[in-house]
Amino acid sequence: MKGQNRSDVKPGKVVGIITDENQITGIITEGVVAEIITKSLYHPHGIKVRLATGEIGRVKTVKPGAA
Question: C-alpha 50: how far from its chain's center?
């Protein structure tokens, strides 16, 4: 799944994000969603989230599974 729809991203889900610092390099950081920052239901560049580690970025991948 891509992370463009807010309905696909829930707190507790494991996702891959691209932080602002890594937008040029495209390095994906994996982690657990702590908070959803984007208020809209859809964002073409990915829903912005805060991970449990405190990192903030736009979701590029969503791991299937519980949560």
Answer: 8
Q: Is residue 14 part of a domain?
A: yes
Q: Over the stretch 3-38, which tens digit does the pLDDT of each residue have? A: 899 999 999 999 999 999 999 999 999 999 999 999
Q: Supply the pTM of this predicted model.
A: 0.90
Cα distance between the two ends of the chain: 14
CATH of the domain at 18: 2.30.30
10 by DSSP, 3-state: which?
Answer: coil
> Tell me, what amino acid is at 60?
K
Q: Is 37 helix (H, G, I), strand (E, B) or coil?
A: coil
